[in-house]
Every structure is written in C-alpha cells, then in structure tokens.
Amino acid sequence: MEGISFGTDGWRGVIGWDFTAERVRACALGVASYLKSTDMASRGLVLGYDTRFGSKDFASEVAQVITSKGIPTFFSVSSVPTPVVSYSILHLRAGGGVVITASHNPPEWNGFKYKPDYAGSASPEIVKILEEKISVALQSQISSKPLVEGRKEGLLIDIDFAPPYITHLRKLVDIPSLQGSGLKMVVDTMYGSGIGYFPQILDGMCGINEIHAEENPLFPGISQPEPVAHNLKALSCTILETRADVGIALDGDADRLGIVDEKGHYISTTQIFALLTLYCLEVREQRGPLVKSVTMSSMIDHLGKLFNVPVYETPVGFKYIGPTMMNNDAIAGGEESGGYSFKGHIPERDGILSGLYFLDMMVKTGKTPSELVEYLFSIVGPHYYDRFDIPFHSDMRSDILHRVSTQRPDTIGGSRVLERDEIDGVRFHLEGGSWGMIRFSGTEPLLRIYAEAGSLNDVRVVLEDLRSLVGI
User: 0.85 cut: is pTM over it?
Assistant: First the structure.
C-alpha cells in the first residue's frame, strides 16, 4: 500500500481513491502509537470533523481505533471548526487532537489533521515520527472498538466543543462595543463548519446576515470553500444589495479569513494580515515579535521597523509559523493563504477570531474597510498582491522543478533581480521592493506563482513573466 505523507497541514486525498477508511484507520493507529510513546495517551484525544462528505464516518473510524488502544477520546457532537478543536485541546488538557477535514480543497477531497498537545499544527519533527508510525500501521492488523462499547466503557465521550471556545473569544474581544456598534455585516461560511459562530459570539447583535449557512458537501456555486475573490461573488453582491459595512468569509474548516469591503471589493489576504498586525500594534498597543511566511507581504517588515519589533520569516505552513511564535513569544503570525494567529489564543490559524479582530478594528478606528486599506498604505506605501494556481499532472513535477531550480533571470516584470532565495520554493527579490515566487502547493497538485508590487498592473506583469519562466 502506498505511503501517507503529510503536507503543510496534515494528509489530504481524493475520497475513495486515496482517502479511504482503511488508510484513515492507519493514520489513527499511528497517532495512538505516537501518543503512547510520548506519555500523552492518558490525557486523551480531541476528535472533530467538518461538513464534507463522510467526515463524521471517517472520524468514527478514528474513534474506534483510538479507543481500542485504551485512549480516552473526546468526540464532537457535530461538525466543528478546526480552531475550535485546537482550543479544546488546551481547554481539556488533552494529549492531542485530530480533525477530519480537507480545509479549503475541492469537494472530492478529505483530510486528516493532527494537532499536538500545544494545539497548533504538528511540527516537522512530529510529522516525521507520525509518518513513520503510520507507515508501520499500513502494514499492520488494525483493531477497533465499536462506538457503543467505547461509550459504555467511558473511553468515548461525546462533547460540544463550542461553548468554552466562545467564552474564551468573548474575553479576547470587546464584544459589547461590537454589539452596540450598529455594524451591518454579511458572513459567508461557505457551507462549512463555521456556520453560526458569529451570531453566537455576537449574541444580540443586529445586522448579521449569514449566507451559504447550511451544510452542503458539494459547496455549490463555488469551486472550493476557499475565501478568495473568485469564490466570493455572492458575498460581494449581498453586501451591495443590503448596503452592509463589511463582508467576512470563512473557509471550509473556518481557520482562514477573507474580507470584502463595503464597496464589494475583495481585500487581499496580505493586506488583511498587515491590517491585523497594525491593529495589534497600534490599537491594542501590543509589542512583541511578528512571524510571517515567505509568501506574506513585505508590509509586515515595514511595520516591524516602524514599531521597532522583530520580524521572523518561515517556510509556508503553520507547522513552521506556530512553533516560531511560541519560541519567540510573538504577538501575531500569518501566512498568505489567509491564516492568522494571535498571542493569548492558540498557535494556530483562526478565521473566526481574525474576523472579530477586524470588526473591532473598524469600530475602534471608525473607518470602513476601504478606508483602513488607505490608512495602511499611507503608512507603508501601496502594496498589491495576487497569485496564479496552476494544476499539473504528477508526471510533470520533476521537469517543472528542474526548470524552476535552474532559472537565473536578470530581470522579471521589467525589474532587476536583486536576490534569489530557496527558503520554500524559489523567490526573486526585485528592484523597487517587489517580489515574485514559485512553489508547489503542500496540499493540492498545484503550482503556485505569487507576486507583490506597488500596483496591480506590476503584479500581473511579474506573474506572467514567472509563468513564462516555468513554461506551463
């Protein structure tokens, strides 16, 4: 049987072809073996799942394997956001957690995320051990305990993870100010596990309009539950039709955030994190290091210099960002994909908390989303960003990798190449502060091409040049 490899956050595969009950059971046995080897087994495992096809059934397979090893399992009573599962690990002082989710991937995919006891993405060191134990499990006879027996023996505990999480977030955010602000918002939960969280947290607040707020594993009307511009047309239209002040979008497992302004325009993920960083530094008056992935905006570096705080850069993925945040007591960490984390919470992405912080920034500054972007640009200068996602057949990977690794262009997009690095993929630093980058996705068969520049036109030129460089 082919091995299982974890990407930037867990293992993902196409349901029925790669992602099967047999392979999920092997992952569960690997996790059980890991927990026992680290003396975490007695603390139990938190187990959740999203709204995708078969997610609850796959989670039940995990529960049967974990409990068969005598490990207590806290099983979610309903679909649940990944950050809620992560927070529950801390709240319950569990040894770790598993979420059955493929996050933002297309509907035919599902996935298996493991969260260690510190409630973040598994570090590369932990991933290596897990993959080794799962490899052994794939060749093993896997026992399981029926759910009814697990419940009868007290090893399987059904639990609602939402209330403690909601209570915690209400302590982090000025909820009374938001409730009395009069803000009108549209929340696009993309048929995912974030359904209902904003109304619950902002209980009593008028003007919350949720769309795509019913569970549907087909994610109709969108290519995949990822809060990027081409998937948020309904959100933009609803904002204009209802004259809302802001649009908030969550991905399939609610660990990513998208924002649409009061004019129906999408705000890029890099601009959102820069704004949330500014919110932490200026509005909340926090001081401490910042952490960003290599694909995140150079605006973070500008803000770090302006407020005299260090900025740490990591490869893509919260398995790098989270540990760096913890090791350096950082106040915020973010990646270009729309995942942001903050001190005092979990070292992990949380689209719900990020959205609440954005709303609080609007209230505290009295600015609309578009005005906030203008304010940001007045401080760090205009920065625009975009990305190409290019599907490719697995047979092409080695040829693409060779072309990318051997190219040494003097100019890209009409700007001189000042520096080239390979922290994660290949990144070109260009004259004038622009940059472009090429890397393989860690979660999908996609080649990603990124660019940031001082205008959208310059961004497009850099992207097209890099695409020509790759030759696909």
Answer: yes
| β 435-440/446-453 pair status | antiparallel
**Could you give the CA distance from residue 207 to residue 187 in angstroms, rounded to a whole number?**
10
CATH architecture of the region 11-161 = 3-Layer(aba) Sandwich (3.40)
Backbone angles phi, psi at 421, to 5 degrees: -135, 165
Residues of the chain with pLDDT under 50: none
DSSP-H helix ranges across 180-260: 197-201, 233-242
Burial 357-386 (b: 16+ CB within 10 A, else e): bbbbbbbebeeebeebbeebbeebeebbbb
| Residue at 166: amino acid letter | I
Count of Cβ atoms closer than 10 Å to residue 353 Cβ: 25
- Specify the DSSP class assigned to residue 283: I
CA dist 14 and 18 (Å) reads 5
Which residues, 6+ apart, have CB-to-CB distance to 327 below 8 Å? Answer: none
What pLDDT sits at residue 443? 73
User: Do 173-380 and 11-161 have the same topology in CATH?
Assistant: yes
The predicted pLDDT at position 150 comes to 98
Contact 384, 453 (CB under 8 A): yes
* C-alpha closest to that of 108 among 17, 37, 233: 17
CA dist list (Å): 343 to 173, 184, 277, 435? 13, 28, 12, 29
Q: Strands 257-260, 73-76: parallel, antiparallel or unpaired by DSSP?
A: unpaired
pLDDT value, residue 320: 94
DSSP secondary structure string, 370-406? Answer: HHHHHHHHHHH---EEEEEEEE--GGGHHHHHHHHHH
384-470 CATH choice from 3.30.310.50, 3.40.50.150, 4.10.400.10, 3.40.30.10 = 3.30.310.50
